């Protein structure tokens, strides 16, 4: 079983107020995306698939790296759709790690800790506790601490909005399972309906 990394780098970054794709903005003399790729390489993956969209060829042209498999997301139909663009090329028995091209400060040790238990548990999700979780999907757990679901802010009731544990979006799972989940994905939540 190998490790395949999918880096999502297709977003517009409208809050950046720039025509430059968000992942190409620089921090410490490197693009955000270059930082994420460098972190991913430290995990010794079999392959890195980077999904780009906004800015067209500007992203792959800027990040000249023969190890990267570039996958274009022509229509921006959400995170699940972005992951689905890369998943057909990944072997079913690979472990898949999903990262974000605009999250450059995640440590390799954190990601290693995330992917290590996946072989037995089939799924790992990186969450964070925030004092002000507004705007993020909340992690709903059962009495034993198992994750039941992720509820987006716009779909959350007042009790769910009190939860401080939120979804980072970074996850690891088996490719075969991810393929099944993506095939059944729907966009009928409140967030999808307001776009």
Can you describe what's shown?
This protein is α/β, with parallel strands linked by helices and 195 residues long. It has a single domain, classed as Spore Coat Polysaccharide Biosynthesis Protein SpsA, Chain A, CATH 3.90.550.10. Helix content is 25%, strand content 28%. The protein has helices at residues 32-41, 58-62, 79-86, 108-115, 118-121, 175-183, 190-193; strands at 3-9, 26-27, 30-31, 47-52, 68-72, 95-100, 123-129, 138-141, 147-151, 165-174. A 6-stranded mixed sheet has the order 5-4-1-6-10-7, sandwiched between helices. Strands 2-3 form a two-stranded antiparallel sheet. The chain has a two-stranded antiparallel ribbon with strand order 8-9. It is globular. The N and C termini lie far apart (38 Å).
Entry summary:
With 195 residues, this protein is an alpha/beta fold. It contains seven helices and ten strands.
Which consecutive residue ranges, at least 5 long each, have pLDDT under 50?
none
**What would CATH call the architecture?**
Alpha-Beta Complex
Number of strands: 10
What gap, in angstroms, lies between the N and C termini? 38 Å
Listing every helix as H and every strand as E from the N terminus to the C terminus, the arrangement reads: EEEHEHEHEHHEEEEHH
Radius of gyration: 17 Å
Assembly classification: single chain
Number of structural units classed as domains? 1
């Amino acid at each position: 079983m190998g490790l395949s990394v999918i880096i999502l780098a297709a977003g517009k970054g409208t809050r950046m107020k720039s025509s430059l794709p968000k992942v190409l903005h620089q921090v410490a003399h490197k693009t955000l995306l270059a930082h994420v790729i460098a972190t991913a390489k430290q995990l010794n993956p079999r392959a890195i698939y980077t999904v780009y969209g906004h800015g067209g060829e500007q992203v792959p042209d800027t990040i000249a790296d023969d190890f990267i498999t570039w996958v274009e997301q022509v229509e921006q139909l959400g995170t699940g759709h972005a992951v689905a663009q890369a998943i057909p090329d990944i072997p079913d028995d690979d472990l898949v790690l999903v990262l974000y091209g605009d999250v450059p400060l995640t440590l390799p040790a954190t990601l290693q800790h995330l992917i290590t238990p996946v072989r037995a548990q089939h799924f790992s999700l990186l969450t964070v506790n925030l004092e002000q979780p507004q705007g993020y999907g909340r992690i709903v757990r059962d009495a034993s601490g198992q994750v039941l679901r992720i509820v987006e802010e716009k779909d959350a009731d007042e009790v769910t909005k009190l939860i401080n544990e939120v979804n980072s979006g970074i996850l690891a799972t088996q490719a075969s399972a991810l393929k099944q989940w993506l095939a059944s994905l729907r966009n009928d939540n409140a967030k999808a309906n307001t776009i």
